[in-house]
Amino acid sequence: MSVELQIRKQLRAADRVFDLDIAFASDSQRIVLYGPSGSGKSLTLKAIAGLMTPDAGHIRLNGRSLFDASQGIDLRVQERNVAYLFQDYALFPHLTVAQNIGFGLARGCLNLRRPAEHPAVARWLHAFELQAIAHSRPAQISGGQRQRVALARALVAEPDILLLDEPFSALDLSLRERMRDELAQLQTRLQVPMLLITHDPADVEALGQTVFELRDGRILGR
Q1: Mind listing the pLDDT tens digit of every residue in the chain (222 residues)?
Q2: Per-residue b/e over 29-45, b at no fewer than 16 CB within 10 Å?
Q3: Theoretical Cys-Cys bridge with 40: which of 67, 89, 157, 217, CB 3.0 to 4.6 Å?
């Protein structure tokens, strides 16, 4: 996998101005953007996902342009083939585990009578050992299980890259170390490229093959 990103974005709120000016390139399978809150990590992730439009620059994934201001390219979210795992997982509370995973498919599988039997859903239920809770709802399962469901929903559509926004911040301290290990093992087994943002040095230590440190909208040392 290769990621090449060079973007600029100015944001204004009342009398405050924040300038994002980020540039990096990597062919690592695990990229970590590390820095404190307000450094521009989430904005960078949203730009890659298509949830925020930069003022200038370009974003390329495996040589394919997702955004290029000079050429007028700005692919829609649905066209980018990237998966975004939100900080709070954003599971649908009224849907079962199987239905939540199926929602990640192009058309979802909410109309199926037995979503757990859909081949793609069944694959990820098995991969994340979620078969026993396939018919449970998010409120009925643990924090670690909710994270696995969110990961399965993100991966079911076979994205080119998995974007993770502070993936362990919603977990109890006792769960974080185990889930870091599980995510590292999962990534190695499935060879799914991922880009993770965090402010936690433990995440960097466990998951960072290539690490870029952000401060005040810029990468240190660049």
Answers
A1: 799 999 999 999 888 999 999 999 999 999 999 999 999 999 999 999 999 999 999 999 999 999 999 999 999 998 999 999 887 888 999 999 999 998 877 565 555 567 777 888 888 898 888 999 999 999 999 888 898 899 888 888 889 999 999 888 777 777 788 888 888 888 888 888 999 999 999 999 989 999 999 999 999 975
A2: bbbbbbbeeebbbbbbb
A3: 217
Nearest CA to 113 out of 93, 137, 96, 88 is that of: 96
Pairing of strands 3-13, 56-61: antiparallel
Q: Which two tokens stand for residue 30?
A: 């695990």
CA neighbours closer than 13 Å in the CB half-sphere of residue 94: 1
Would you state the structure tokens that stand for residue 18, as one six-digit string? 């924040």
